[in-house]
């Protein structure tokens, strides 16, 4: 249901000066701040087709590392879904490691329903001359060749860089290991003008020192890589993005239902030095 591509768009969530590594430079990546963000989730809207009468939960996103050592992301997305007939507990746990310098990416996602494991996807990917090569080890062993794609942190850097340049609309292909870990996604990103926060600005009260800093309103739509014509997005995310990669005030539109995510807690970690 939820893709790790937000940690990267978030979230999370890549074309900088200096020596490039897969489209991003190690120097530019130092703008990203290690942090742990907790978001409270609520159902904003749901169609009859969704079969959802109520939904709430919590999302925890932890981003660590440095441009020289690589970045790790620990991500957990837990929801209680009320269908009117039963209440289900869903739990998605994702961990990734991204090495910007060498163009490598590792990923592991486990999905649970009512504390029972439904699916595990594990593998690695690396940038090659002709695109991205993916080695999957779970649920089965196989190799996949994909078109040239950005990994999640690279994509985050691209969004920040283009926002700083004033680009308002652009397209990217990304690979984040989500779903079955064998497909890339096309993203269309819209960036609004940078804004200064106001007193009643969403969940600014939980943003700590970030509450007084400017941000960009960002919308990212995700499409299948083989889309044709006026295809509808698989899902769409809206959020407020700071220059250091922290996000807040989320809206996640999955078509049949929409969730909002308000920042409940933010802890910024000490940033390591590259040696």
TrEMBL record:
Cross-referenced InterPro entries: EipB-like
The protein, known as: Cell envelope integrity EipB family protein
Signal peptide: 1-26
Keyword Signal among record annotations: yes
Alphabetical UniProt keywords: Signal
């Amino acid at each position: 249901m939820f893709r790790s591509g937000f940690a990267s768009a978030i979230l999370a969530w890549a074309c900088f000066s200096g020596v490039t590594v897969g489209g991003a430079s190690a120097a530019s990546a130092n703008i990203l701040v290690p942090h742990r963000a907790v978001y409270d989730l609520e159902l904003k809207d749901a169609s009859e087709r969704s079969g959802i009468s109520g939904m709430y939960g919590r999302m925890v996103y932890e981003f660590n590392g440095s441009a020289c050592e690589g970045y790790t992301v620990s991500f957990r997305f837990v929801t209680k879904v009320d269908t009117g007939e039963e209440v289900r507990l869903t739990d998605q746990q994702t961990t990734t490691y991204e090495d910007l310098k060498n163009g490598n990416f590792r990923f592991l996602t486990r999905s649970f329903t009512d504390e029972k494991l439904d699916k595990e996807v594990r593998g690695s990917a690396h940038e090659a001359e002709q695109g991205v090569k993916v080695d999957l080890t779970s649920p089965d062993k196989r190799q996949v060749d994909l078109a040239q794609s950005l990994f999640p942190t690279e994509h985050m850097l691209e969004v920040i860089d283009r926002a700083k340049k004033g680009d308002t609309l652009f397209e990217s292909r990304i690979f984040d290991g989500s779903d079955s870990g064998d497909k890339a996604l096309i993203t269309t990103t819209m960036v609004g003008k940078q804004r200064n926060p106001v007193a009643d600005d969403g969940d600014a009260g939980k943003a700590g020192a970030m509450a007084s800093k400017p941000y960009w309103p960002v919308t990212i739509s995700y499409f299948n890589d083989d889309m044709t014509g006026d295809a509808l997005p698989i899902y769409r995310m809206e959020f407020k993005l700071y220059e250091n990669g922290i996000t807040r005030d989320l809206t996640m539109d999955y078509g049949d239902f929409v969730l909002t995510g308000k920042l409940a807690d933010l802890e910024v970690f000490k940033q390591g030095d590259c040696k």
